[in-house]
């Protein structure tokens, strides 16, 4: 920045060829050119910062969506595993209940058969001695 001031001061001194009016116009247009360049530089910097913030926001939203989708997939996997376990447990209970009923009915049939055969079997008569 000091080099620019030195350059500006060096130009501030009118040469032998320029008059005071020409020197004033030259210095004013140089200053206006620098102000214009600086203003557009500031506009570019602001645009760059806004662009970075927008990209950052989009990256945050994208990351949040990916995180949410990953979370939902995890919840779905856990729910799927739980439903498989519930189905397996209910199947085991149903099959176990049916087998118990079957085995109980067989036991009752055998008991009834034994009781009936015991009642209908002829008895041996023992001789009294």
What is the CA-atom radius of gyration, in angstroms? 51 Å
Q: Number of helical runs?
A: 2
The coarse silhouette is rod-shaped
**Share of helix, binned:** over 70%
Mean pLDDT: 85
Poorly predicted regions: none
The overall number of domains is 1
Cα separation of the termini: 144 Å
What does the main sheet amount to?
none
Compute the number of strand runs: 0
Percent of sequence in beta strands: under 5%
Helix/strand/pairing class, anyone? Answer: mainly alpha
Order of helices and strands: HH
Description of the molecule:
This protein is mostly helical and 129 residues long. The chain has helices at residues 2-12, 20-120. The chain contains 2 helices and no strands. The protein is rod-shaped, with a radius of gyration of 51 Å.
Highlighted features:
single chain; 129 residues; 0% strand
Task: Give the helices and strands, then pairings.
Elements: H1 2-12, H2 20-120
In short:
With 129 residues, the chain is mainly α.
């Amino acid at each position: 920045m000091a080099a620019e001031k030195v350059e500006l001061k060096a130009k501030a001194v009118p040469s032998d060829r320029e008059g005071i009016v020409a020197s004033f116009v030259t210095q004013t247009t140089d200053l206006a050119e620098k102000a214009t360049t600086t203003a557009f530089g500031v506009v570019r910097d602001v645009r760059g910062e806004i662009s970075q913030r927008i990209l950052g926001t989009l990256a945050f939203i994208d990351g949040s969506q990916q995180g949410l989708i990953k979370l939902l997939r995890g919840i779905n996997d856990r729910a799927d595993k739980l439903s498989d376990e519930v189905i397996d447990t209910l199947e085991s209970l149903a099959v176990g209940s049916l087998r118990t009923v079957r085995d109980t009915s067989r036991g009752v049939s055998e008991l009834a058969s034994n009781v009936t055969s015991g009642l209908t079997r002829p008895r041996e008569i023992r001789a009294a001695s």
